[in-house]
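S.,

Sequence below, as promised.
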Amino acid sequence: MTPERLREVEKLFHEARERPPAERETFLARACAHDSALRREVESLLAQPPAGMIDAPVGALVAGLVAPAALQLLPGSSLGSYRIEGPLGAGGMGEVYRAHDTTLGRDVAIKILPQEFTTDVERRARFEREARLLATVNHPHVGAIYGVVDAEGIHGLVLELVDGPTLADRLTAGALPLREALRIARQIAEALEAAHEKGVVHRDLKPANIKVTHNGVVKVLDFGLAKAIASGAADNELRGSVAVTSDRTTPGLILGTTAYMSPEQARGGEITRRTDVWAFGAVLFEMLTGRRPFGGATVSDVVAAILRATPDWSMLPADVPPSVARLVRRCLERDPNARMHDIGDARLEIEDAEKALEAGTLSAIAPPAGDSTIRSPSSRRLARGCRRVCPGLAPRTCPGPGGASRDAAARRHPFRQRAGSCA
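The prediction came back faster than expected:
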């Protein structure tokens, strides 16, 4: 949306809002007599909740307004080399269709982007740069981006077609069993870790963007809202982009979904990898309890809860091990500096919990009382290496990172003597 268009929409929005509701339709019909798209944009903005419920300026809402999608594609129609087979769904970033690639002979999903991507040359170029970056995230648990399609004035993304229910569908029946929740959480963490290593933040992680295939494989989808945090241009856009929606199909969607937004997202602050860590914690909490950590009757109630409330930790089932409960707490720390820094740490904790479940030694993964430290991957690997060198020593007597014993046996620890890095 160009600055001129933005000013025009905002001007009409204010003028319409100042009129009684019964007069707005007549006013817009007259003011937008020759621009039906402009009228739809203003009407969609007027349908948003009152601005008083959040402290976002009208301009921020207008800037995130989703323009009308392109004409619906009918089954059997063609878009370049793709044959449309039918709709899969719709969301804030456009409509999604199931299609068949007639060149490569495979089924794909095509996300048709809003018209503003095709009318704004600069925005389209930026999107294509980001799409190329996202395409470099090649991982078994990340829905792949195959390319872009540009035909007949329609612009879209060609995506991997992933069959199976979403995690949101699975959670309609309530909490998941511990083993299943950990297995899914580990795969989500692996997907985010791969993206973060490429400098990509998802920013919209939620159960509706996570598919679980019938054989239990997790695919994290919809990285289309992600930004390249390594790019200077993208960094500037990571501030102030906030989603305030009660549902993923709400008109005027900006970015993200309220229930899984981090506090910094809700405030319009800087988006970093720890934003995804927060959303991961929210998803894991919901898998374990069947309830979202932050709820409310309205969008404003949910935002207020994210900014001020504390999750009800008593909702965690009794079979959740202390290390996993502590992991969820660390992911949902309101202060990003106190939050778990790296999703790879979460993956390691979950892997330990899964191994302990298999071995029947679940309590062994809990750190000593009073030790709330979740170690970094490097220190965790060092501790594991220490146990391999000295299999005869119990882990609690190993002079490794995060709680070493200083008795005589520990001081004679051969790994300490050789490497000097186990103390």
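Residues 113 and 308 are 36 Å apart (CA to CA).

Coffee later?
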